[in-house]
Amino acid sequence: MFDERGKISPLPQTVNASYARVIIDRSIHRELDYSIPETFADRVSIGSRVRVPFREKSALGTVVALLAESEAEGIRPIEALVGDRPALSTKLVELARWMSTYYCCPIETVMRSLLPQVIRRAEVGWKKQLFVSAAKEILAEEIEKLRKGAPRQAELLEAVSKLKGAIPAAELLRQTSLDNQTLRALEKRGFVSLREEAVARDPHADEQFIASTDLTLNLEQTSALSAVEEALASPETAKPILLHGVTGSGKTEIYLQAISSTLARGKTAIVLVPEISLTPQTVERFKSRFSEAQDTVAVLHSHLSEGERHDEWHKIQSGRARIVVGARSAVFAPLENLGLIVVDEEHETSYKQEEAPRYHARDVAVVRAKMEQCVVLLGTATPSLESYHNAVEGKYRLLNLTQRVDDCQMPLMRIVDLRLARRKEKVAAILSEQLRAAITARLEKHEQTILFLNRRGFSTSLLCSACGEARNCPNCSVALTFHRGAARLTCHLCGHTAAVPKKCPACSQDALIYSGFGTEKVESNVAHLFPTAVVRRMDADSMTRKDAYRETLHAFRSGKIDILVGTQMIAKGLHFPNVTLVGIINADLALHMPDFRAGERTFQLLTQVAGRAGRGETPGEVFVQTYTPFSPSIQFARHHDFAGYFQQELEFRERCDFPPFKHAVLITVRSAHETRAQFSAETIARRLKEALPDEFILSAPSPAPLEKLQGQFRFHILMRGEAIVRLSRIIRETLDKLPLPEDVVASVDVDPYQLL
Ligand code: ADP
Ligand code: ZN
To answer: Which residue has the higher pLDDT, 547 or 339?
Structure first.
């Protein structure tokens, strides 16, 4: 009675359906048939949410197919229909099936991502507010008559008589300093009517958006936009578009105008941005361009309250919102009549979800666009190798913006060889002599500096110089980081914290030394070197307060901060015209990760961070501190040579059978018991070897680079191949047939980005 897993079967669309096939919100790995009661027969459709009997209880689920007949035995009826319209469109149900097949993941898990929890549970409703209005025309003598016996009612009635419509009751009572009892008395007398109405919890309700208008595009922008318009005119045949535009080339303006055209065609649009770039600034750019109706733009991100998410989602589903701006999961926004999906910063790894379903929002966007016959526009200054390869192969249409809008020069990149610096100064300083001099020059000219280091904390390890013991996390195979502000040792992987010992706990000697450094130490070092400068730090530790991020950015923009030290939080998409210097404290951090994308990430990071410098009239300068100055990623980034970098990286990938030439699939086997994890990994690998045809490459199971995480020992099995759907299916079949010990978990990651 259930589908063969992994096969996309066309969904039966029966008008006079008697049965519904339902995926319930539990991990039971199968779909169940239920009969449709007469009472709501005409309201059940694909994508409807239903309450159904399941075992001895009832459960919520989603209808994925309608059937005229069912061969299942013991069919029971659907208990109730949840919501007044289907939560998902047929297209989104189809997308869920595709994801389940491609990402080797049970469909109920996919459903969890498609429907926000607040919608699935259906426990949170609209926020209701009591509105008051006059029930009839109120005459002056009626008010006077009340005055003697009930002066307060008279006073309130007088206020009501002046109302021009309904207002929130609370507001009226506040204005008149009267109470609810008085209001109810007037209702009883038939003077006022009270009505409950749903009010939207709009996270941006109290912000004013000043309307902005289309900018006049430059030549490159004009031709890029007209290519997008062409696609919008014939979406059935349009290829996905890759917009490769250097930072500051005006990509966002193209998105905005493409969205205008989409709306003008009566269609809707989704804009995906990385969570980290979903700042008030970004939201404002969209809200103000489409400000004619407050509801036109809905925003979805992880900081919404459950109530806000409920309201934004319904605003989208009911068709009131026509543009959705959001992070990864906004790719599932339930918009009808989709015309355009924009994926900004398409190369960003945060589009990949690191828990099941382990999907990549850019790739899902491309598939959804194909299913809905809409245009997909991928924009970036540093295309991912996958997308650029697709463009070169002709699968995507490539558009280029080579000039910055302000005609500003690309910043000058200077590589600081830390090996030389070290020889000269004995101890390696955090800031090289060159970088220090450059900062001094900026301070004199009242220009601003950004210093970037992708590592938090003060010291990255605490070692005993007598016995050599390091303070490691008891749950993970990493050293604990010393945070001076919090005066604690912290594990950045599991959050474990420990007190800072005075003596070595292993040998009791007073010989502890701190080594390695993070942003906290950079900040303190910089403050020490430049005592008159205003220095601020921006990272996950210093930005815990809700408004801290906004406040710090505001202070920086208005020139109240001279030097901003931060992690990737400051690397992306922010505009600061007065920043003329960027220092990358250690370019090697990303480069030496055990990951085939390490080079790509370093190139992207350097290019993105460099894009922060020199947006105004003064050209910017970037100092890249590194121990490996001749690594290709650094050299190509230095010369702003994307094509050169792409070519050499592509050759490397081809030689090693890595994406974009082959898809990779990573199985991680974990358990609290090391030997059991290892044994299970070996068994799985053996079974896979039997099941996989020769065209697939299977690497021997090995301990993961991060051997222990949160108390679990981890082993990796890496597979590669071209026919990804086939590979996914074989993996699922193999795993389904193989009972693992209770305490062993095997997870499958298709197109993985995290190889630790
Ligand atoms: P990108 O997204 O490519 O980094 P943006 O779209 O953020 O670039 O554009 C950078 C700046 O240039 C923004 O302040 C934007 O308003 C401005 N801008 C974009 N296009 C134009 C234009 N055609 N004329 C004038 N200013 C523009
Ligand atoms: Zn830990």
So the answer is: 339
On whether the CB atoms of residues 565 and 441 are closer than 8 A, the answer is no
CA of 490 to the centre of ligand 2 (A): 8
Ligand 1 contacts CB of residue 448 (under 6 A): no
251 Cα nearest atom in ligand 1: 3
Chain Cα centroid distance, residue 92: 19
Q: Give the angle subtended at the CA of 280 by the CAs of 275 and 283, to the nearest 5°.
A: 80
Spatial distance between the Cα atoms of 367 and 364, rounded to a whole number of angstroms:
5
- Owner of token pair 């009242």: 446
181: its two tokens: 């009892």
- Answer yes or no: do 381 and 426 share one domain: no
Atom of ligand 1 nearest to the CA of 254: 6
- Predicted pLDDT of residue 573: 54
Give the β-pairing of 663-671 and 712-721: antiparallel
Query: Among candidates 179, 170, 121, 117, which has minimal Cα distance to 150?
Result: 179
Ligand 1 pocket residue status of 274, Cβ below 6 Å: no
Which ligand has the nearest atom to the CA of 289? Answer: 1
| Total domains present in the chain | 6
Same domain flag for 703 and 586 = no
- The residues facing 342 across adjacent strands are 271, 377
Its pTM stands at 0.86
- Which residue type sits at 32? L
What number does the ligand 1 atom closest to the CA of 285 have? 16
What are the tens digits of pLDDT across the range 226-246?
999 999 999 999 999 999 998
Ligand 1 proximity of 339 Cβ (cutoff 6 Å): no
Find tokens 């945060």 and name the residue: 350
Picking from 90, 115, 140, the residue at the C-terminal end of a domain is 115
Q: For residues 648 and 625, give the distance between their C-alpha atoms in angstroms, rounded to a whole number.
A: 23
The DSSP code for 360 is B
List the helix and strand counts (H, then E) for the chain: 23, 31
Q: Which backbone phi and psi does 178 adopt, to 5 degrees?
A: -115, 170
Q: Is the pLDDT of residue 14 over 70?
A: no
Question: Do 66 and 14 contact (CB within 8 A), yes or no?
Answer: yes
* β-strands 579-584, 563-566 pairing: unpaired
In the beta sheet, which residues pair with residue 703? 715
Question: Among 652, 672, 697, where does a domain finish?
Answer: 652
* Ligand 1 site-directed mutation target among 253, 259, 288, 345, most atoms within 8 Å of CB: 253
Does the beta carbon of 251 sit less than 6 angstroms from any atom of ligand 1? yes
pLDDT, tens digit (0-9, with 9 covering 90-100), for 702-716: 999 999 999 999 999
DSSP characters over 122-177 = ----PEEEEEEEESS---HHHHHHHHHH-HHHHHHHHHHHT-SS-EEHHHHHHHHT
Tokens for 545? 């307060």
**pLDDT tens-digit profile of 262-306?**
999 999 999 999 987 887 778 889 999 997 766 789 999 888 888
- The answer to whether residues 157 and 192 belong to one domain is yes
